Amino acid sequence: MQTVDASQSNSTASKGGQDIILSARGVTVGFGTKVILNELDLDVRRGEVLGFVGGSGTGKSVLMRAILGLIPRRAGKIRIFGYDLERATEAERLSIDRRWGVLFQQGALFSSLTVKQNIQVPMREHLKLSPRLMDELATLKLELVGLPQDAGDKYPSELSGGMVKRASLARALALDPDLVFLDEPTSGLDPIGAAAFDKLIANLSETLGLTVYMVTHDLDSLHSICDRIAVLGQKKVSAIGPIEEMMVNDDPWIKSYFRGDRALKRV
User: Fold this and answer.
1) Which residues contact 170 (CB under 8 A, 6 or more apart)?
2) Which of 73, 88, 141, 261 is the least buried, fewest Cβ under 10 Å from its Cβ?
């Protein structure tokens, strides 16, 4: 089984010379007496689409929320954009928050706000812009994710599931981030809608130079758009690499997931 090299330093470059935009070392997270993640290590390279997989309840979303600071860590360090999150000043933390965007699994749009107003929430929090400029920027973000302009005046309850995902992505892109976190972005979508969303993510990553950290169960996504895949097992990242390596990995869970009866049959 391929394992993460725990001896790698917290530098901003990997052994292959690629920039590391996010680095986790020894991350431990638990609730009460239950340990969810134990001394987990992970590097995310600048410009890649990283798919993060694991069994249900193993802590994939827990790690993402710990990185975002939404739940506490018991131990370990997380460096992002070169900053140690624990030691970052308030000004540095604000700068970090402006450089990432998040799409939560259910979209997490504010139901009392229109789509355009939802997209403007990060702008109001971090920028000082005129209402007219915010309207123009929100319209641009709608176009960027493939939504019609009139969608901006609708409320989340008036949108289809696929449109909610795209509207949530538009909000995640509101501040032109370097890094985007996606939590199960294709869940609840039909195969055609999921494929279209995968294509959108791939295009945005390529054209905007985005780094994408994507928690997913979708094998199509893993095969079609992920540069590397990280597997969560035994409370750590047990394997990481491109899909080709996952397809020949002999770890029982990885083998069952990628080559089992319900896995995609590819030649």
Assistant:
1) 115, 119, 138, 141, 142, 144, 145, 147
2) 261
| Mean pLDDT across 28-48 | 95
Strand-pairing partners, residue 22, are 44, 80
Report the C-alpha gap between 203 and 189 in whole angstroms: 19
Spatial contact of 226 and 214, defined as CB atoms under 8 Å apart = yes
Q: Under a CB-based contact definition with an 8 Å cutoff, are residues 59 and 34 in contact? A: no
Using CA atoms in the order 9, 10, 16, 20, what is the torsion angle rounded to 10 degrees? 170
- pLDDT band of 258, cuts 50, 70, 90: very high
Is 141 in contact with 160 (CB distance < 8 Å)?
no
Q: Residue 152: what residue type?
A: G
Strand bridging mode 83-84 / 100-103: unpaired
Q: What is the pLDDT of residue 265?
A: 54
Q: Give the closest residue to 254 by CA, choosing from 222, 206, 221.
A: 222
Helix, strand, coil percentages (3-state) for the chain, rounded to 5, are: 35, 25, 40
Residue 241: count other Cβ atoms within 10 Å of its Cβ: 15
The DSSP bridge pattern shows strands 236-241 and 228-233 to be antiparallel
Q: Which residues pair with 179 in a beta bridge?
A: 100, 211
Residue 86: HSE in the Cβ half-sphere, 13 Å Cα cutoff: 11
